[in-house]
């Protein structure tokens, strides 16, 4: 027995959830009929088309096996006639459903009043997420009850309804209202804006700060972007005071400006190298570095191991005094020998004064002679005996190294004198002197008297034993 198909249509809760629209299409018949739906725009969908969907079309429509149609995310544009068709070999039936979308009033998510803190002078952002049908318009109302427009210079309203205050001021504090409105009604959310404030800071510091700046007449003074002086003159000297204040307090920066009419590169009062004795059980050693210049130079000491000591620094037994360029070596030991370099610098340049500690008796003495300049300078060494060395070579215990250093091995008392390094190029020459004063301390002595007799008178030789060995001869008279 065969039956023609019949359709009954049931619409479920279309007013309760406008985002999803569900329509039942119950078809009966024998054989079982096939169900398809015709949409308001004329599109026909069925289970076969649905299974072949490539995914390029947004699948907002779903047909279940029992013929039920589900329309997801329904909006005003989905209004119209939906027709259900049931068809088998004996015939077909159809049922039309007219759908009208009823407006849905706006709803703002998280509509409880919130408090927002924003730093003074920074941007602040307030969100307002709302849904409804038709989609609601977002309106922002300022604390003084004025509607904020998108054309405002101070504010910016994004497409999603977010309000941005570009630069927060104290006047921006208060309650902002977000109103979501459409034809079905409106919803409101309040946001309380509070501004973070603090007392002024200058260069990252609060309170009163003092600074001293030195400039010369051919320089430009730039003070942290706050004050710019061009072509400063002697009459510009004095104290400049920067004051920043708000209702929480104030900060100030006092700057003492000193203008030097002419800057002078540092130079040393004693340009020659000083050689100091190093004793194993001696007193502390003090190395002086006295230099003049305009403005007053700052000093830096470089130890033999290349360690740099700034003013006021202390490294184990080495102390660089603050201000006067003095280096103290506490309880010196033999390993402290070497070249101690002193640098004096100011805005006009820098100068260097080598100050080597004297090497113990009988050891090797290195006298460096480093030259900077172009064209490259030639170096000659003049020894205390007048001998001139004009190229790297070895003469006895004296070695002229390729880097310009003069090396004296196995130093002895007769090596005392002045060693002079002279550097010459096409623009002139300069000299550097190493006056050396090698000291020798005799150890405790043993005396041994050897007497030889010849007739009534005798010549007696007296030998003094020690390092080095000394010998003297005396003539004495003896009675036999």
From TrEMBL:
SMART domains from the UniProt entry: IG, IGc2
Superkingdom, taxonomy of origin: Eukaryota
Segments traversing the membrane: none
Keywords, ordered alphabetically: Immunoglobulin domain
Domain Ig-like: 23-98, 106-194, 271-360, 362-433
Entry keyword Transferase: no
PROSITE patterns for this protein: IG_LIKE
Pfam families listed in its UniProt record: I-set, Ig_3
InterPro entries per record: Ig-like_dom, Ig-like_dom_sf, Ig-like_fold, Ig_I-set, Ig_sub, Ig_sub2
Ribosomal protein keyword on record: no
The protein's name: Ig-like domain-containing protein
Organism: Pygocentrus nattereri
């Amino acid at each position: 027995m065969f039956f023609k198909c019949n359709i009954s249509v049931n619409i479920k809760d279309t007013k309760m959830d406008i985002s999803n629209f569900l329509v039942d299409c119950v078809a009966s018949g024998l054989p079982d009929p096939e169900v398809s739906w015709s949409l308001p725009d004329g599109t026909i969908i069925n289970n076969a088309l649905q299974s072949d969907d490539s995914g390029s079309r947004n699948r907002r429509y779903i047909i279940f096996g029992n013929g039920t149609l589900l329309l997801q995310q329904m909006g005003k544009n989905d209004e119209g006639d939906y027709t259900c068709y049931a068809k088998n070999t004996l015939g077909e039936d159809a049922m039309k459903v007219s759908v009208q979308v009823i407006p849905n009033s706006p709803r703002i998510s998280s509509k409880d009043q919130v408090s927002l803190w924003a730093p003074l002078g920074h941007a602040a952002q307030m969100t307002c997420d709302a849904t409804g049908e038709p989609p609601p318009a977002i309106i922002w109302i300022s604390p003084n009850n004025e509607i904020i427009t998108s054309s405002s210079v101070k504010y910016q309203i994004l497409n999603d309804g977010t309000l941005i205050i570009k630069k927060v001021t104290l006047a921006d504090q208060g309650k902002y209202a977000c109103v979501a409105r459409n034809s079905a009604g409106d919803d409101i959310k309040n946001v309380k804006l509070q501004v973070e404030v603090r007392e002024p800071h200058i260069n990252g510091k609060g309170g009163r700060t003092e600074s001293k700046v030195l400039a010369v007449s051919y320089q430009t003074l730039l003070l942290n972007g706050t004050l710019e002086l061009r072509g400063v003159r002697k009459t510009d000297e004095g104290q400049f005071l920067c004051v920043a204040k708000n209702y929480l307090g104030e900060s100030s920066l006092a700057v003492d400006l000193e203008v030097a009419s002419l800057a002078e590169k540092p130079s040393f009062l004693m340009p020659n190298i000083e050689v100091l004795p190093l004793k194993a059980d001696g007193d502390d050693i003090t190395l002086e570095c006295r230099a003049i210049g305009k403005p007053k130079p700052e000093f830096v000491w470089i130890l033999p191991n290349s360690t740099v000591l700034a003013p006021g620094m202390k490294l184990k037994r080495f102390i660089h005094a603050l201000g006067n360029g003095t280096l103290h070596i506490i309880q010196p030991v033999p390993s402290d020998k070497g070249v101690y370099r002193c640098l004096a610098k100011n805005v006009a340049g820098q100068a260097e004064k080598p100050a080597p500690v004297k090497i113990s008796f009988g050891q090797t003495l290195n006298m460096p002679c480093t030259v900077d300049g172009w064209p490259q300078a030639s170096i000659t060494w003049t020894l205390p005996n007048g001998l001139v060395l004009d190229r790297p070579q070895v003469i006895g215990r004296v070695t002229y190294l390729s880097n310009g250093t003069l090396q004296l091995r196995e130093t002895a008392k007769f090596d005392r004198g002045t060693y002079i390094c002279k550097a010459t190029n096409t623009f002139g020459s300069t000299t550097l002197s190493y006056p050396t004063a090698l000291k020798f301390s005799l150890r405790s002595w043993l005396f041994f008297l050897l007497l030889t007799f010849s007739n009534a008178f005798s010549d007696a030789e007296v030998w003094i034993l020690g390092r080095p060995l000394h010998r003297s001869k005396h003539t004495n008279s003896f009675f036999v």
